[in-house]
Each structure stands twice: as C-alpha cells, then as structure tokens.
Design brief:
The complex is a heterodimer of chains A (250) and B (300). Chain A has 250 residues and is an alpha/beta fold. Chain A has one domain: 3-Layer(aba) Sandwich (Rossmann fold), CATH 3.40.50.300. Helix content of chain A is 31%, strand content 26%. Chain A has a six-stranded mixed sheet with strand order 6-7-8-3-9-10, with helices on both faces. In chain A, helix 5 runs parallel beside helix 6. In chain B, helix 2 packs across helix 10. Chain B has 14 helices and no strands. Chain B is an all-alpha fold. Helix content of chain B is 81%, strand content 0%. Chain B has a domain of 208 residues: ABC transporter involved in vitamin B12 uptake, BtuC (Orthogonal Bundle), CATH 1.10.3470. Classes of the chains: A alpha/beta (250), B mainly alpha (300). The interface between A and B is medium-sized, with 36 and 30 residues.
C-alpha cells in the first residue's frame, strides 16, 4: 500500500526574529501517529503553525505528496490547544463539525446530501452522534477534543496536527481520545501530536520527533525513545541556555 | 374607550418617516450586533462612536449643514481613528486598547472644540443623542443605502466571518483572509453608526449595536439566530421605543435604547436556558453537571 508523505525539508521558523525551529528535516508517512516531544519553547507550536502557513517560513519547505503545502490546504488540519477556543461561542457540536465542509463548499453553496453524510460520518467516527445538538461548552474535555477531530474529518483532511490534545484530560478521556487517534491513523491518516507526558509516549506513538529548537532525534518509538534522547532534549535549551528539568521517569 | 391616541403617530408624516428609519436602522444594527457581541467589539464600537464627532465638525466648518458632507466627514474621522489605533499599536509597545482610548478621547475633544468654533449654529446634542423626528430625505436615503450594502454583505460573508470569529488561527490556516475581514467588519461598523447618527445619535447607537444580539445570546446557541433574531428584535424594539416616546412625549433616542435594555433585562432574568431565575429555582442537582458526570462514567 502506498502512503501519502509529508516532507519537511530544512525548515527554519522565526518568531519575532528569534529562531524557534532551526533547519528541521523530517519525512512523515501517512498511516502513522507521530509524537512531537520537547520542552516549553522548543518550537512545537511554531512548527505546527509553519506547517499550515500561520507563521512565515525563513528557509526550507513543507510538501504533501510532492506538492507545496499551499496546494494542499484542505489536506492539513491544525487543531489548536483547547485553551485557545472560546467555548461560549453560540454554536452546537454539529454546526461546528459542519464548518469543516465550508472549504469544499466555498462561501455560498448550500449543503448537499454528501456534505450532510460527511458530517454524520465524522460525528459517528468520533462517537459524538448523540451529542450533535449540544452547545460546545456542554461537552467534557475529551469530547471537545474529539469534536475538533470530527471537524477535521468532515474537512476530509489527511494530516492532523494536534497541539497538546491530552493536556487536562483524565485517564478515561485520554484513553478514549487515544483510541480515536489510533483509528484515524489506521485509516491511513497522519497524526502529529505534540505531547508532554513522557509516560504515555510508548503507548501512543509509532514514531517520535524530539525537538528543542533543532531536531534532536527522529525515528520509530522503540528505537529513539531512549533515556539519552530525552535527556538531550529536555535538559538544555539550545537558544535560551536555561536548564529545563522534566519528569524523567519513563 | 377612546383609542385614537394609539393610532395618532401613524397619521403624521414625520412619524411615518421616523418609523421607517427606525425599522431599517434597528434591523441593520441588530443583525450587525451579533458580530459586535461575539468579537467583543463593544468598547471598540463605543470609541468609534465618539470619534465620529471631529469629522462632523470639520465637515460642518467647511461646508455647513449638508447631510452628504457630514456623512463623509464622519466616515473619514472614524477610519482615521481605527487605522491610527492599528498603526500606534503595531509600531510601539502601546497596546491596542490604550491607543484606541487615547485616540478617541482626543478625537472627541477635537470635535467639541471645532464645533464651538463653528459659525453655523448647531445643536451638538442632536448628533450625540439623535433626533429621529427630524429625519430628512437625504438621511433616509443614507440609511436605506447603508442597510442595502451592509446586510447582503454580512449574509454573503457569513461563513468566512464565522470561521474567523470562532478560531482565527484555524481560519487563517484554511486560507480565509482573516485580517481583511477584520477591517471590513470595522468599515461596516462605522457605516452602520453613521446611518444611526441622525436617528439616535452616536452615543445611543451603541445600544442598538449591542443589546439585540446580547439578548439573543442568552436565549439561543445558534449564531444564525443571533443574526436574524437580533435584526428582528432591533427592528421591533426601535419602533416600540419610538412609539412610546411619542405617546408619553419623551425623547426618542433614549426611549429606543431603554426598550432594548428592558428586553435584555427580561432575557437575563427569565431565559429558559441561561436566565438567572432558572439558576435560582433549579434544584441543586444541575442538569448539565449530571449529564457530564454520566458522560464521564460512560467514557470510562
């Protein structure tokens, strides 16, 4: 089976003229779930934003299936951290998932049968079909995260960039979200997930990227998720020089 | 019982005009208020309202009392304040709210000084608090044209505006021109304010630009209803306020805003979903909390 590939070549991103990501090169393949690990300020969010064109790229490129990412806008879905969302927004779960279809429909066209089906499918896949009429703040944290995944599914995205989706979730909600993410990966999607809980990395991710301004290590989880790489990534911050001590118990 | 007083307003030409103007302004501002409330632009709108004044004054000094030039002057002044705010906040460490507050206070003061210098005798309070009974043909045309421009524009751009308001970063990642839409919304806001100038004045226009959607926000979880119901509420509320002001011989602008405020108060107290009364009479086992608890149990 051939897979889509997302290639990041020699990518440098600066945030307010301070380099956030330095000459990063990785090649990711669809059908896998990739953990993005690094301390605060390591450039994880900057990397995501650069991949969807929210911050300017200084050098390098992001290509999807051989095309520049700009030609594949609807293929890449970015899900910001939960704290960035206005949960009191007057919108129900279903209406929010419908937003995923806006790109395909443009600014005017009305919803067709296939659009409604895509929304139904997305809600079902994320096990939210009975919660469609709820206002989004009336969902639990895990359900909120899955609602955003459902929207990306309705968009028919192939690449899902998730910024700290597990933070603030209790164990059962984490497990349910992990299941949903795994199903998406098994269905041939690429999920890149920034994550800070080192204890759960082995269970969640096929591959990991260790990032601290620049690439520390990248590869299959069982090969690169080592004590040494964790130490290298988390103990010194390349640009600020400040030490960062995470919980190293793996 | 003699009910002629009830229908008396409809027999006067000036009241028919006023009602027509109020219905249009009420609907347009009410629909637009959905965006003001959701984007939290209330204070921005207040500032813009004040900054219209120097433009009016300069137009008055240069051309005298002509609705057309007053309109252009107000537009230019408001846009200058809006862009000045963006320039100061993006080129220095001064934040947007500070820049805006500073500019609009200065702009308003400049307006007052200029009006005092004007040789044309003009009642400043007409522009601050409106005089809907004095709506002329030109004013009605301005109101009509602005409504005709603003409403279809907002309807046409509903999807990208909704995406932008909900999650600006995600919208931008999907290629929605987030910044352009932001400026467009500012422009629309200024236009609506100008159309309200003659009717309720720059200060009271704010009530029409906030109250309707704020009321519907307490009653509904749908943005589309905030937009349409906000429009209808603004329309009905404005006309009711105007009629009450006629029957009771009270100033019209404040009556309109008070009616809208009263409707908001009712929603605040008695909204079936988000009202205060419901929270007070509701048993201690909160429905949502209980639902969320069961959801969590099902998840585990």
């Amino acid at each position: 089976m051939s897979y889509h590939r997302l290639e990041i070549k020699n990518l440098t991103v600066s945030y307010k003229r301070v380099p956030a990501v330095h000459h990063l090169t990785v090649e990711l393949r669809c059908g896998s779930c990739v953990g993005l690990l690094g301390p605060n300020g390591a450039g994880k969010t900057s990397l995501f934003k650069a991949m969807v064109g929210l911050v300017p790229v200084e050098t390098g490129s992001v290509t999807f299936h051989g095309h520049d990412r700009r030609a594949a806008i609807s293929e890449i879905a970015y899900l910001p951290q939960r704290t960035m969302v206005d949960w009191d927004f007057p919108i129900t779960v279903r209406r929010m998932v419908e937003m995923g279809r806006y790109q395909a429909l443009g600014w005017w066209k009305t919803f067709r049968k296939e659009d409604r089906q895509a929304v139904d499918r997305a809600l079902e896949t994320m096990e939210l079909e009975f919660l469609g009429d709820r206002q989004i703040s009336a969902l639990s944290g895990g359900q909120q995260q899955r609602a955003f995944l459902a929207r990306a599914l309705a968009q028919e995205a192939h690449v899902f960039l998730l910024d700290e989706p597990f933070s603030g979730l209790d164990k059962p909600a984490q497990d349910l979200l992990a299941g949903a993410i795994r199903r998406l990966a098994n269905a041939g999607n690429l999920l890149v997930v920034s994550h800070h809980d080192l204890q759960t990395v082995r269970d969640l991710f096929d591959q990991v990227i260790f990032l601290n301004g620049e690439l520390v290590a990248f590869g299959d989880t069982d090969q690169v998720f080592t004590e040494e790489n964790i130490r290298k990534t988390f103990q010194t911050h390349i640009f600020s020089g400040s030490a960062h001590e995470p919980d190293l118990a793996v | 019982m003699n009910l002629t007083w009830l229908f008396e307003p409809f027999q006067h030409e000036f009241m028919k005009r006023a009602l027509f103007g109020c219905a249009l302004i009420g609907f347009t501002n009410g629909a637009l208020s959905a965006f003001i409330v959701i984007r939290r632009l209330a204070l921005m709108a207040d500032a813009m309202a004040h900054s219209l004044l120097p433009g009016l004054a300069i137009a008055l000094l240069l051309f005298g009392l002509m609705p057309g030039t007053l309109f252009v002057g107000a537009l230019i002044a408001a846009l200058l304040v809006a862009f000045g705010t963006q320039i100061i906040s993006s080129s220095s460490r001064i934040k947007e709210d500070t820049a805006l507050g500073l500019l609009f206070a200065c702009s308003f003061s400049l307006g007052l000084v200029l009006i005092s210098l004007s040789r044309v005798s003009v009642n400043v309070s007409d522009y601050l608090f409106g005089n809907v009974l004095g709506l002329g043909d030109a004013d009605l045309w301005i109101i009509y044209l602005i409504s005709l421009m603003v409403l279809p524009l907002l309807v046409a751009l509903e999807r990208p505006l909704l995406l932008t308001m909900f999650e600006p970063s995600v919208a931008a990642s999907q290629g929605v021109p987030v910044n352009k839409l932001k400026y467009l919304l500012m422009g629309v806001l200024v236009l609506s304010m100008i159309s309200s100038l003659q009717a309720v004045g720059v200060i009271l226009a704010l009530g029409m630009l906030i109250a309707p959607a704020a009321t519907v926000y307490l009653l509904s979880d749908s943005f589309a209803s905030m937009f349409w119901a906000g429009g209808i509420l603004g329309c009905i509320g404005s006309c009711t306020g105007l009629l009450i002001s006629f029957w009771l011989n009270l100033p019209s602008g404040p009556c309109i805003v008070l009616v809208l405020g009263l409707i908001f108060l009712l929603a605040y107290l008695f909204s079936p979903k988000y009202g205060i009364a419901r929270k007070l009479v509701r048993p201690r086992h909160l429905h949502e909390a209980s639902l969320a608890r069961w959801d969590r149990r099902n998840e585990s």
